[in-house]
Queue: 4 jobs
Job 1
Amino acid sequence: MYSLVSASLLGCDLADLSSEIKSIEQAGADWLHCDVMDGAFVNNISFGTPVLKCIKKAASVPLDTHLMINDPIRYIDDYAQLGSDNITFHVEAAGDPQSVIDRIHSHGISAGISLKPATPVSAVKPFLESVDLVLVMTVDPGFGGQKFMPDTLEKISEIRYLLDSMGKKDVRIEVDGGINGTTVKYCREAGADVMVSGSYIFGAQDRTAAVKSLKV
Ligand code: DX5
Ligand code: ZN
């Protein structure tokens, strides 16, 4: 499958959100990645529904919502109703992951499941049959601008192998954290096809070239 770039807005100038959105869309970003953090599941607080509503108004490309929050089922309806096109939640944060997936699907949108670097593939395996996307964290979630963890590549390959052997070739694998023009190649080789990037693309002099360098 051709690869997509999901631009993490955590890496942009949040005081200038609508022009940052236009700029990164013009640079070729396929999706807008919105990192929602609750200060409990991760050690940081980012933004929530009021900000995502504004992002949705300004956006022309799909909204890729990444919920780094405990007990995500509480907020699925809110993030779906404001116009998320995909909602990804963390397997470590959900008591009953299947019911979260079903709740996301009840809104007719794509459901993603994510795992932290320390979480084994076996934690998401039972849900591969019903998700549309698997987000493999390539850094510990919580902050932008961290260094890519190469140990996570093996998990990408393993998940790609499992999905392919289940006949789920259309389920995408997204990678998030420390993605740049170099690390993206390892991820692509391992089987990822949605590349999240914040600091690398928003910090680039030439954003178009930076986004293009991720479409390997
Ligand atoms: C980290 C977030 C990421 C982050 C990526 O917890 O999930 O989406 O913004 O930022 P970079 O690309 O700078 O590593
Ligand atoms: Zn993210």
Note: The longest strand covers residues 31-37.
Job 2
Amino acid sequence: MKFQPRASHFIDGEYVEDTNGAAIEVIYPATGEVIARLHSATPAIVEQALNSAKNAQAAWAALSGTERGRILRRASDIMRERNYDLSVLETHDTGKPIQETTVADATSGADALEYFGGLAASLTGEHIPLGGGDFVYTIREALGVCVGIGAWNYPTQIACWKGAPALACGNTMVFKPSETTPLSALKVAEILVEAGAPKGVYNVIQGYGDVGASLVSDPRVAKVSLTGSVPTGRKVYAAAADGMKHVTMELGGKSPMIVFDDADIENAVSGAILGNFYSSGQVCSNGTRVFVQKGIKEAFLKRLSERLAHAKIGDPMDEDVSFGPMVSENQMNIALGYIEKGKAEGARLVYGGERIERDGYFVQPTVFADVTDNMTIAREEIFGPVMSVLDFETEEEVMARANDTEFGLAAGVFTNDLTRAHRIVAGFEAGTCYINTYNLAPVEAPFGGSKMSGVGRENSKLAINHFSEMKTVFVSMNDVEAPY
Ligand code: NDP
């Protein structure tokens, strides 16, 4: 099998196998073909990975930031050199079109390694004068062993978004990819070792949720960073709380995108396409509740349908293809189930709405109009190519409806009224907001959610605070006064 890795896990600088672990079949979503067979981590493998990360941590943290940063930046260069091969692997792991994976996966991972590699040397504490010559200084310290747990939609990116800031701060990591997409994180681990990362600094073990759970509850672990759904986030957060561990939670969403009647319709349609159909709709920050002001609703829907007709659906390895399959049969059935609910609850099907008759797990890009706030498709995260278009009349009304959700990951507004745009964004209950654009996530900017969508932020300098802690040191230059 062309994509079969040398072994299932990567621990202490090398590939490791334990065939006693439950079988994991890796399936190419475009054909349903098995492209690799792996094994879930046994307790012995979990033990080995945690020991390796624990043993490597002190020496890694003792390197200078410049030295750690150099290794991360070298890894970034290697990832860029191998972008095409890594993208082919990512396309087979996830089903995403090669047109996307060559620009949004290994390249995004490389950006994170480069950015946090660049920051590593500048991570310092501060000096705080107290008067009379006394002072405090702070030392920014690594947390220790960090666990990363990933979802299946952006496996390379998630492995790097968690690994790069963790390693820059002097932590070591055990990363568990989703068992649906286990292949690319192994490549990230290989590349880090090739770039000079000492053994044990970045380990990858495979497994189902139980493996993630055993990592989270282990006392050697200081921090857990999860990308996943809200129900999993709740479980992981609770397990981490028991050991008072640090957490970052990047969870799901049901984000609003508001289009006012003064917006540039072409840009708004582009934003809605990017925010609903890129990666076949399997993006956490998608703006799946598209509120369109009544006066332009039909014009918006007409233009959207015309543009969707140009989506090239097919073999994701074909460079012209812009819309691929969903990641798995299971995820496809979830999306199809929501489409049926949309029809049954009375939403108007404007585009798509069916499985595509070919091998693999293809669902048509689907648009429902006349969706109301209480319909299931407007309330629950679908994580598939299903857009809900809702009408609105006034700014006040749409603001309240946009925020009427337990989620708070992202939100966007399209308007040419400058003051209204900023007023709307100020009112959004969401961590990541967009004005006249949608779904950007460059490494320089903080990314993450409010409310049930998460805790903490990834990317940007803020991520450093989530992977390090401050030690405060009081220094007296004077005699110590005591009452007796
Ligand atoms: P899941 O929540 O099902 O799984 C996420 C990861 O957690 C998987 O690796 C999973 O393993 C693991 N896991 C499951 N149960 C436990 C547990 N009890 N303890 C520890 N780990 C566990 O999410 P999906 O993989 O289905 O991904 C889709 C979700 O991810 C969507 O809700 C989406 O919105 C969200 N997401 C959020 C992003 C963000 O940045 N905010 C970005 C991308 C996705 P296994 O798969 O083996 O069960």
Note: Residues 43-62 form the longest helix (20 residues).
Job 3
Amino acid sequence: MLWNTLCMKFKTRPVRSLVADQQHRHINIVDQTMLPFALEMRTLTSWPDVAEAIRAMRVRGAPLIGVTAAYGIAMAMTADATDDALDRAHAGLLVTRPTAVNLAWALTRIVRHTRAVEPPERADTAWAEAMKIEAEDVATNHRIGTHGLDILRTLHRQQPRTINILTHCNAGRLACVEWGTATSAIYQAHQAGLPLHVWVEETRPRNQGLITQWELEDAGVPHTYLTDNAGGHLMQHGRVDAVFVGADRITRHGDVANKIGTYLKALAAKDNNVPFYVAAPASTIDWTISDGLTEIEIEERSGDELRLLRGLDRNRMLCDFRILDDDVAVGNPGFDVTPARLVTAIITEHGSFEPDKLSPS
Ligand code: MRU
């Protein structure tokens, strides 16, 4: 039953990154640390399970982190609906990933709804709100894709041939509940018969490009896998018509925090007159801040992400290969900030906007 739900639309691979089981009060997730080598589901039954899954990046991608954390609150309220338990779960989940603002957004929303009712009603209220946040994620990302499709149709009218899109990291359906942010337009364009090809950047050190590749292959979208450093070269040679990326936090003036390396793509895009689009739900916009460089906390991740490489050995057994000793100093900032001046437009569920024309209404 779970498998059928997950495999609904795509050929063999789950279309949904998360399935809630309201009856048993738990959620099932695709463990993304195993992708693309193995497709493993995990059941999360408590808020500490959820916190571990977010911290370890079993679930990842700004929108999905928010939805999963909301279910963490629902599970916390199932176990203990006191104010103390609510505060503990809220604080414990909030610190799991600092950069993606969708986490704080979803937690603030669900905690407000939950606290507003008496303890005996809190579990049901929190479950209902988490399911609403999940359903909204699907609808929102579909709408983002529809606006992105308009942009791709215009590009195709201007150049009636295969449109080459470059993407970085995974802003795909596995980073959300369904559709993805940057990939939503790509999936919708592919379904509409628009000829396109996607350059997929590897995205060291976690190689989320592997997840994007896995998704695009499943959806039948033509694509080519690249090292992170190849994007600029391709742009110089006219082989990229547009860059589509997602975002983890956007300031009210349009600076964009996204996976490390995004800024370099934006610089190369500017230098080569390639339009640079950021696709994200409005919940990724942090209206409280204006300067991305000074006001966005950039997550520093474990050096082991650089020291060890996950892959299959010659016998196709899953292994973590060591490429650096433990005593080598490494730096591992997870995100960077692309200044608004390098962004052509930000595509949200409300339409596409020049970065300095964002508005909360
Ligand atoms: O560290 P991750 O894998 O959670 O980061 C995700 C990203 O940065 C993605 O590029 C994405 O654009 C944001 S989620 C749609």
Note: The longest strand covers residues 196-201.
Job 4
Amino acid sequence: MTTERTLVILKPDAVNRELAGKIISRFEEKGLKIIAMKMEHLKPYVLSEHYAHHKDKPFYQELMKYMSSIPCVLMVLEGKDSVKVVRKLTGITASRDAEPGTIRGDFSMSTQMNLVHASDSIETAKKEIARFFKDAELMKYEKMNFEWVYGSDERGLKLGKK
Ligand code: CMP
């Protein structure tokens, strides 16, 4: 159990379908701490870096068009095991098969327009956060309900420490 940071992007369909607030609430209600959030119209150069591992996939061009179509909401979430927790809340890529109760399972019918990007590992999260956020944009503050979100054995642990 480590305190981790993870990158979430609310994709253009989340913004256009007016689901951003609902999706952000899911993360907040779970107990994750929002330490950065902004809206940005993502440029092709940053998207080509972000999706470099999909470059040869048949859906790549459409993915680039979709992701650069209108602004996205970008967030950094912090919490114990947050990379895994956020991936679980998000649900699998192919939204029609995603479990009910997950964001994609409840709100999306599409594999491409699947509302949310979430980092897939701690290492990826570090790279992705640095790609989209400056250090100064990552807020440091105490969450008032912290001691009601985690048990005493889970509190007071330093970032990245067991
Ligand atoms: P995500 O898993 O967050 O990152 C890669 C994105 O590419 C994925 O979400 C979808 O938006 C898109 N994608 C993945 N697979 C397909 C597919 N088979 N067809 C269209 N888009 C896809």
Note: Helices lie at 12-16, 20-30, 44-50, 60-67, 82-90, 103-107, 122-132, 146-149.
